[in-house]
Design goal:
It is a single chain. By secondary structure, this protein is α/β, with parallel strands linked by helices. The chain has a single domain, classed as Ribokinase (UDP-N-acetylmuramoyl-L-alanine:D-glutamate ligase). Helix content is 36%, strand content 25%. It has a ten-stranded mixed beta sheet with strand order 5-4-1-8-9-10-11-12-13-14, with helices on both faces. It has a four-stranded mixed beta sheet with strand order 3-2-6-7. Helix 3 runs parallel beside helix 4.
């Protein structure tokens, strides 16, 4: 079982414009409006890959209710949420069709109490005891300290030591979580450089910087997604690069979350490191080939996994 944590869920609204012009009126068509949030996206992608998953997090029920639980039930995904007051935030994605680029407008969302944070922390530790992996993804709502993912990872390490922690976050959220020695982190290249204060040029420099961080924090592995260039993955002994697969890009929403899902699915199968990366890249490509916030499925994933790729071994064998 793979658990996912989404402290700051949302409604993802994706619209498309032929060419976004900040100086003019833009005529848009609505592609999708779905329940979202990075951890929920990981669970949705895992379900699409036919992996067992459970979704955790806050549910902002508000006076009009929330679609989180009903959406997860409709997708066949077990879930356990801590109910809190407030309305789900809305995150608007503007997909520029001419540039194949997404502009994101993400609301902050409601603030939660310290007591609610403690309840979620207890839920994480309790659920992790029955899981192989648990992912911590995305931003936090107001009211939670930037050490929240660190505290979650520490709780898992102490109370569910057989469950491996995966962190997909940036800046202080990621830096503080590193002190709990998560198994895997997955920043994108921009997040990696900004978070660790490095400027890498080429794969050799990237591998050198990543290896230093892996050794410093005793990480199991790190994956760095690189958008249209592909992705890189490394342990203390090995490192590989996989170029992006060729697909017709219809949306970039959920690409990184799908990569996390693919990587976790491959790790659960016990596959070697290059295949772990291949799974992640194929899952990501399967999602960006679909409009809006629709994520990968077995039907879109398997043909891409069968594509020939020039996997490069950068270190080890």
């Amino acid at each position: 079982m793979i658990a996912t944590l989404t402290p700051n869920p949302c409604i993802d609204k994706t619209i498309a414009v032929p060419h976004f012009d900040i100086m003019k009126t833009n005529r848009a068509r609505i592609l999708r409006s779905d329940v979202g949030g990075k951890g929920l996206n990981v669970s949705l992608a895992l379900r699409g890959l036919e992996c067992d998953t459970i979704a955790l997090g806050f549910d902002f029920t508000g006076e009009h209710g929330s679609p989180l639980k009903s959406t997860m039930a409709a997708r066949g995904i077990p879930c356990s949420f801590v109910d809190v007051p407030g309305q789900l935030r809305t995150c608007t994605k503007i997909f520029d069709e001419s540039l194949k680029h997404t502009i994101e407008l993400n609301e902050y969302g409601p603030t939660v109490t310290e007591e609610a944070g403690e309840l979620l922390l207890e839920l994480v530790a309790r659920t992790a005891a029955d899981c192989d992996f648990i992912t911590f993804s995305g931003s936090l709502p107001g009211g939670l300290g930037s050490d929240f993912y660190f505290r979650c990872a520490e709780a898992v390490r102490n109370e569910a030591p057989n469950c491996k922690v995966v962190v997909d976050a940036e800046a202080d959220l990621l830096l503080k979580a590193l002190d709990a020695q998560p198994f895997l982190i997955k920043p994108n290249i921009n997040e990696f450089q900004a978070t660790f204060g490095v400027n890498v040029s080429g794969l050799a420099e990237l591998d050198e910087a990543v290896l230093k961080i892996i050794r410093q924090y005793s990480l199991g592995m790190m994956c760095v997604s690189m958008g249209g260039e592909g992705a890189y993955i490394a342990t203390a002994e090995q490192a590989y690069f996989c170029p992006a697969l060729q697909v017709d890009v219809r949306s970039l929403q959920g690409a990184g979350d799908s990569m996390v899902a693919g990587i976790c699915a491959a790790l659960q199968l016990g596959l070697p490191l290059p295949e772990v990366l291949h799974y992640g890249v194929a899952a990501s490509a399967a999602s960006i080939s679909r409009e809006g916030t629709q994520l990968c499925t077995e039907e879109t994933f398997r043909p891409l996994l069968a594509q020939d790729v020039e996997m490069r071994c950068l270190r080890g064998n």
